[in-house]
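> forwarded from #structure-qc
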């Protein structure tokens, strides 16, 4: 349905100041009409009046930030916003509230206009995933993108063994995050340091919550899990830990996020062919009933502030907002 996404080269960052997009009404219209000093039409007015949360489908391959950039480019192009490359991506206030790894697919919640202030609320809710693991193989990234570091026999593992082990990973547990992750050391991502070949120590185990965990399919070496978890949880680490508990090893082959907060993959995620101003307007209206009446004004406490990159917001200065998952 989504097909292959086409990602244009990243725009440069300019020093010019763009008009601040606002909510529906005169403020939103003014932002649209002042973009680049060019008077724009109704499509631009409608785009800059959009405000709230909706969900898109992120395919396997691109980063979450890349998907967001493409979405923004599509909307600005449809609205006829033809400012220069340095300003174009600074005009629209849009962000996402829950990073998916490049190798993962599924629900990506997006905030637009005032909705960017509500993205933190997505961190408090649960997330659901379907994960496919492979027994007998371990990689340095804990998923299929990494280098194989270990191989062990797995013939002794039965379906009953696997189901029994899952009980140990349900509820409030301690989990060591993967080295290849967005967690930071001295301001740099651990994954960046690892790719440069620098020595990186594992972060200490931290408390995470698993609401439910079930085995959906078992055909060795493959097994499929359904996971519902809270913030800060790494499904890659779960699959790896399951392998160790079974006296073998395991790595994650595929991951799909099927739900984030109230947004589900089947009912709410817009595929690429629906990335239009009108479709997003309809989705915002449909999703209004899923959300609180007003965005929270208090600064929400996150489970691990400053550690996990989960919310990427483009503002007028194209700055990034990072908050704990």
């Amino acid at each position: 349905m989504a097909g292959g996404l086409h990602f244009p080269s990243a725009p440069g960052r300019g020093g010019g100041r763009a008009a601040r997009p606002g909510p529906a009404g005169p403020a939103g219209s003014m932002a649209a009409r002042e973009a680049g000093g060019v008077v724009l039409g109704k499509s631009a007015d409608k785009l800059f009046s959009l405000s709230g949360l909706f969900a898109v489908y992120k395919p396997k391959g691109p980063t979450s930030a890349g998907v967001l950039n493409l979405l923004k480019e599509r909307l600005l192009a449809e609205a006829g916003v033809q400012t220069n490359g340095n300003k174009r991506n600074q005009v629209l206030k849009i962000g996402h509230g829950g990073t998916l790894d490049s190798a993962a697919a599924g629900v990506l919640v997006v905030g637009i206009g005032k909705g960017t202030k509500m993205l933190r609320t997505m961190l408090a809710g649960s997330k659901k995933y379907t994960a496919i693991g492979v027994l007998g193989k371990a990689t340095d990234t804990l998923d299929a993108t990494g280098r194989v570091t270990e191989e062990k026999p797995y013939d002794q593992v039965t379906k009953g063994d696997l189901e029994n082990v899952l009980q140990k990973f349900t509820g409030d547990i301690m989990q060591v995050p993967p080295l290849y992750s967005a967690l930071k050391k001295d301001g740099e991502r651990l994954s960046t340091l690892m790719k440069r070949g620098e020595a990186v120590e594992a972060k200490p185990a931290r408390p995470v919550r698993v609401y439910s965990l079930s085995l959906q399919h078992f055909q060795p070496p493959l097994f499929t899990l359904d996971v519902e978890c809270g913030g800060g949880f790494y499904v890659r680490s779960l699959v790896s830990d399951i392998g160790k508990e079974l006296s073998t090893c395991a790595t994650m082959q595929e991951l799909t996020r099927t739900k984030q907060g109230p947004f589900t993959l089947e009912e709410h995620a817009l595929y690429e062919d629906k990335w239009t101003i009108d479709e997003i307007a309809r989705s915002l209206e449909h999703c209004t009933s899923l959300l609180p009446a007003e965005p929270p004004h208090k600064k929400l406490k996150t489970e691990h502030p400053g550690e996990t990159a989960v919310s990427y917001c483009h503002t007028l200065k194209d700055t990034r907002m990072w908050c704990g998952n």
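QC bot note: The chain has nine helices and 15 strands. The two ends are 29 Å apart (CA to CA).
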